[in-house]
Design brief:
Layout: H1 5-14, H2 24-42, H3 73-77, E1 83-84, E2 87-88
Antiparallel strand pairs: 1-2
Helix pairs in contact: 1-2
């Protein structure tokens, strides 16, 4: 797919990117190259390939899910700008 200079100007305008008139032909070539690469990707057979979240397979570290009380409310609340009766105090936002 080939992008024209006018289309490159429109894309730059929509992206709110200032591009000099002299740079528009190069931008049009770059955008055309990107679209050509995307067309190549569309030709790849991905039937039966599961989606990946990253390029290297990795297993997340897991820990046993145990319910605790935290055991350190004083330490946690010591960082609060305002704490009352063992809780974080925040300004009222809804009348």
């Amino acid at each position: 797919m080939s992008i024209t200079k006018d289309e490159a100007r429109k894309v730059a305008h929509l992206a709110r990117v200032a591009v000099d008139e002299a740079d528009l032909p190069a931008l049009a070539r770059d955008l055309s190259g990107i679209l050509d690469f995307m067309e190549q990707l569309n030709e790849v057979d991905v039937e039966g390939v599961e989606p990946m979240t990253g390029v290297t397979p990795m297993r997340l570290k897991r820990r046993e899910d145990v319910v605790t009380t935290g055991g350190m409310p004083e330490k946690i609340l010591s960082n609060a700008p305002d704490a009352r009766e063992g809780f974080f105090a925040v300004p009222k936002v809804v009348e």
